[in-house]
Write a structure and sequence with these properties.
Length: 191
Amino acid sequence: MNKNLAQEKKYKRIILVLSIVIPLAVAALFGINLQKLGFDVEPLTFLPPIYASINAITAIVLVATVIAIKKGNRKLHEGLNTFAIFCSLLFLVMYVAYHMTSNSTSYGGAAAAEYDLLTKLKTFPFYYFILITHIALSIIVIPFVLTTYMRAKLTDFPAHKKIAKITFPLWLYVAVTGVIVYIMISPYYVQ
């Protein structure tokens, strides 16, 4: 068997496992609130603006990575993509840590009294559309990102380029909508 085919087969198994395990682990951990379980932990309420900023950085890096490859700078392109993956993982760790130590904030939640009801009603459908598509695509994009990265690592650049044309807009959408969700819900955070 060709060495690249053997590596690809191994990577595909890893990608499949990660594409299932990551969303399941996040969902399981999201449902655990350490305070409600009796642990004496300080709520990590400072994290949402940080992980929203990380989403913004990811979006900027993704655009920079496309510019880098269009200018023929493959090394920079690879480094930026690796950094974007790191940012996404960092976001995920912070997001889970926040939700494991703090109560979830709902759109129009406890701090909503000072906000105009009409404004909330107008933005409510938009917020939930953005939130639902953000969550769904954040799950869907995992195998795309990993497969795109694998194709580059295996130097299968035609296949890498082909899947990157799908991965890039999905990943960029997830990064940008993460920031939008934060901005829209931030008035409702209870400090």
